Predict the 3D structure of the following.
Amino acid sequence: MDRVESEPRKRFLTFGSPLVTEREIAAVTDVLRSRWIGTGPKVAEFEEAFRAYLDCRHTVACSSCTAALHLAMLVAGVGPGDEVITTPMTFCATANAIIHTGATPVFVDIDPETLNLDPALLERAITDRTKAILPVHFAGRPCEMDAIMDLARNHGLLVIEDAAHAIEAVYRGRKVGTIGDITCFSFYVTKNIYTGEGGMIATADAGLADAVKTCGLHGMTRDAWQRHSDKGYRHYGVVRPGYKYNMMDIQAAMGLAQMPFLERYHARRCQVWRVYDEAFRDLPFTCPADEPADCVHARHLYTILLDLDRLRCTRDEFMDSLYKRKIGTGVHYVSLHLQPYYRDRFGFKPDDFPQAARVSERTVSLPLSPALTDPDVRDVIDAVVRSARQHAR
């Protein structure tokens, strides 16, 4: 993909638009024709395919990663009076799920290079109320899990990983999903595998996996497939006041159709990533840091950090200039300590987490998807280069 200046783009490039093929369409159609649309054999098949991909012991499909995070903490015993340490540089679902258990989120600032939770700051955040550490693998780059796990074990804490961005991520030879006590993945429409909405829990603990299954479906001991399949009706018991967090077969079918192509899609995102790195090398912003040689970055988000001292614009004005050139962008993220609910409830100030606050003002996520064509990539580069030149000091 040689860098060439292109003609003005005619069609808007939607940020995060997924690659939808005839495989996904046919898979969904087959489920509809089967008339088994809810939780059934496809969900079980998807759980097994994902378990085999991670090479972990147990997987449980959920309606979303948010549901997975909530369930993970509930079955692990997180509740009122507890504290859960996490990063403020994440989607609100991470901290919202903590709030939903009755626990309190405790933020730790990020490493300015990796944008992940800074493990050097973790220990000072631990109190006698701390129940768990919830690292987020930002943009698909694995956190420093050895340091996090060592600290957690030394203090008797759970590690619940938010791997919404990190399906393909590997940390020092171990796939994300096989390191912490529980790991939660996302299949939202923009993710590396999409099911529209959906999530997955991975764990080595059979008891936690069974509890997630029960708690995630009304507290029932059997799901609909177990009750109404061709093996005959079986009674269920309600053993706890659970939630409606189950995945449907119609969703699982989409995920299953993509599983054989995970590595191919990852390779395409890596290719686009390298082209971006080369094209943006001399522009007034910082490109994502390289991952260590012993890790695999899932390449979910390509985020640039604008050098506002070298630009005559704000981040939002820069994004608007890309929008006018028909390129969609995202913001990942405005730090949670700056969001109204968390700011007002906990009395946070911007300089409480200065690295997260700094990134919040400068971050722009560019399109990164196997759905991108070479002309799409050239259009993104052209729009970014032109916008940088337009706003340069």
User: Anything to note?
Assistant: The chain has two domains: 22-259, 261-391.
